[in-house]
Amino acid sequence: MKLPCVQIAGALDLAEAEMLAAAGTEFIGLPLRLLDGREDLSEAEAARLVASLKKSHSATEVVAITYREQAEDIIDLAQTIDVEWIQLHGHISAAETQRLRLLAPELLLIKSLVISDENESHLAEEVADFGPLVKAFITDTHDPATGRRGATGLTHDWAISRRLVALSPKPVIIAGGLDETNVADAIRATHPAGVDAHTGLELPNGRKCAEKVALFLQRARAAFAELA
Questions:
Q1: How many CA atoms lie within 13 A of 136 on its CB side?
Q2: Nearest partner of 173 among 203, 157, 193, 197, judged by Cα
Q3: How confident is the model at residue 210 (pLDDT cuts 50, 70, 90)?
Q4: CA distance 1 to 24
């Protein structure tokens, strides 16, 4: 895992993914097998996107983001679209994650830490439980109004993310309401291994704005360089 890294999630199609890769994004996240069916593209389209990027932008990895909680379903998803990186964004248990590791040791796992009111102690327990099982963690923001655990466009208390970064034995990526206007401040506040953006870089039509993407990457790189 190349660090520090930038992930941008929610590519709608191959053209958008190629724009993100050409801009220098290390990871492109594709939300798939969501519980409410909000996928941006089909799994067949995702598989074609992955195959194309492997040929044209081999330095960019595709991450399948899923809320599924059963090892077999997650493995099937990884095999269907041919990715190694999986972001576990649901309520999967440490025991099931261990089972996933045993069944598919080739998969590289990122575990979400979704921040809500007064759940910091629970997240600290998750860091301890999942630390030996995953390659990295990613923080995000819970939206109490909708119940969504990601792609909310909401920030959270970065002091909590900073404490999780200090506590974690694995790299921590910061997500949740980040865009080109606040990413540098988030990096300075949390000292993460990477940052992630989704809705904050989108136009009203849901497509990523190339200018926002370029500024996000530029300002993230500059802030990481300051910390280094």
A1: 25
A2: 193
A3: very high
A4: 15
